[in-house]
Write a structure and sequence with these properties.
- This protein is of the alpha/beta class.
- It has 3 domains: 35-246 and 574-638, Rossmann fold (3-Layer(aba) Sandwich); 248-471 and 560-569 and 646-695, Rossmann fold, CATH 3.40.50.460; 484-553.
- The protein is built from 30 helices and 19 strands.
- The strands form 5 sheets. A 9-stranded mixed β-sheet has the order 1-2-17-16-7-6-3-4-5, with helices on both faces. The chain has a 4-stranded parallel β-sheet with strand order 11-12-10-15, with helices on both faces.
- A hairpin with a 2-residue loop joins strand 18 and strand 19.
- Helix 6 runs antiparallel to helix 8 (151-157), helix 15 crosses helix 21 (457-474) and helix 28 crosses helix 30 (688-695).
- The structure holds 1,6-di-O-phosphono-beta-D-fructofuranose.
- 1,6-di-O-phosphono-beta-D-fructofuranose (FBP) binds next to loops.
Amino acid sequence: MKDKKLDNIEVLLKRPEVQEATNNINRELVERREYVPPKCKAFEHPYTLLKDSDRFKFNIDKEAKKHLSDIIHNKVQTIEGLYSPEESFRDRYCKRRNIGIVFSGGPAPGGHNVIAGLYDAAKKANPKTKIYGFLLGPDGIVENEAIEITGSLVDAYRNLGGFTMIKTGRTKIDTKKKMALSKETCKRLGLDALVIVGGDDSNTNAAFLAQEMIGDGVQVIGVPKTIDGDIQVRDAQGQVLCAMSFGFHTAARAFSNAISNLCTDSSSDVKYWHICKVMGRVASHLALEVALQTHANMTLIGEDLCNYIDEKRIEEAAKENDIDYTAYGMTLRHLSRVICDGIVRRAAVGKNYGVIIIPEGILEFINEIQIFIIKLNTIIAEYNDTHDTDFHTDFPALEDKLEYLRRLARVSREDRRFSVWNTRDDDLFNDIPEFFQEGLLMERDSHGNFQFSQVKTEKVLMGLVNDYLNILKENGSYKIGIEKSYYRKVFEKGGLDPDYFGPIIFKNYDDAEFLLVKSSIISVKTLKQALEKEQVISEAEEIPAPVEKIFQKSVPKFKTQIHFYGYDGRGNDPTRFDCNYTYNLGLTVFSLVANGSTGQMAAIKNLEKDFSEWEPIGIPIAPLMHLEERKGKLTLVLEKSLVEVNSTSFRIVKAFREKWLAAIPGDDNYRRPGPIRFTGKSEEDRPITLVLNALG
Ligand code: FBP
């Protein structure tokens, strides 16, 4: 017998209203797919031409010159539109090609539009050209796992976030074997060009592949992707070539919307401090943009901390004819004190709530932690090299790893030449909480990077903040300020004279809008003692109810909610800025390929200006390389761009610090950026950081 309930649900599911309400395809999706990004001027022409520019110079690293000799002298290439080229040019430009494209590293909103731009331009030049998408990142190249990208596939993902179409991965093509397999794949597919959409490490990989495959006639082009915003290119004179990698704007806007909602929530129920860690493996660009978008109460900027100098400690040491080297650079403990200072000052004006932004990579800028990271990187890399195995497989549990470190410390006692891990390091390391030890010892990624996203940075920092706040509470300096008018109302209602009690209970009764209970009154017991001392009550009497009520309101509870903004923003659908940027990057890629470039990164100059001024260009990757420590060795990589403390955007955020902390009576100064708006006119057209930096 057929189940009646089942019958009902089947009927229900067939109803058009239910089908429409539960369809994957909603109106926003349709609008996004239909949106056609505008093209830079050069791309309004049927053909484009490259011109080498001598306006831009680079300081070339000796090692880069040695290892990337065929592409090291590449120049910046500008792109111009062309209507009717010579036949030979047209034949070359429009020849039938096979082009492979791969996403490498973390997803960044806009990647699909790079494919769309490339696809549209390539098919327009020659409908027989084939675009292959390598699956799951560089592994797809090594293992020849590719699909042919069709028009319907491109259409399904236009203006949509993620890298869902062909997925991504973090493999690095860094061994002879992987390189040989990659070359073999390119040969089998008959590739004319390979496009690598990735961050600093992936563009580094692109340069090495370009060098390696130049003899095979395979062009390699990079595309600057990463939400971290740390691919920003300038020449040696500081002329901006690429102001920002794609995906940054969307991730920052998505984080900002969520964090701004927390500002609203926290200033409504006034009981939580929201601790928001935001992505950015090393650089704090995302945190800086979120600060500008939301005006949250406190935003830590990693790059700012390493410049910190504790003048007081220096002066004190100078009095003793000494130099205090520890006064340079911020320690974790000192940073926790800075945070506490903000919390205590806000509490004093009745605001025991707020929002703090912590960049994911902040530990990179704390000396003591950075030293641990470098030492452990070296130890792990040396172990892997000497034993030809993997440190993490050989020592799976934390205790095994700690025992190995202890052994190293013992060796250092017996052999002074061995200094990478000594007894002092071991003692300091054993002092930190277990979860943090685990974090610092965690496996590095395939490029040798420390995986900050996996470390509970906020837990470490807020643990110290909590401890110090407890000390401040006990010594009576962390109190919630009581609004004077409220105090008067409670006392008058309770039949007590507020002006009589005021100077007995508060330390600033005469002149303040927010009253602070005296530091010596830290409990009901000490409150009673104070009242007895002033002979307000006798030992046998109870504390009057209004007095106790006001006291209880002055006792702070430090309650936090911890949030991590990263993967969510990375998967967001792109802003219009990122849609337009990435589509034009795709068009730029094709222009570079069609004009025979290799070892270049597609970029758009003047991103900080109005769209009408955007200029597509090719930037040579090899001259951007420098030596950096990776897996314990100096390695050639593309230089990451960090927040510059002299930049206009940072200086402005710094100037607004006090205002946004709002540790004075009155409202907070939160800004509401709202959600990303794809249609309509109210969405901003570029990141605030870019707007401000363009002024400087
Ligand atoms: P990319 O540099 O590859 O773009 O990735 C950046 C990032 O989003 C960082 O912000 C974050 O630290 C990291 O990826 C997280 O990596 P994973 O996806 O491996 O957890």
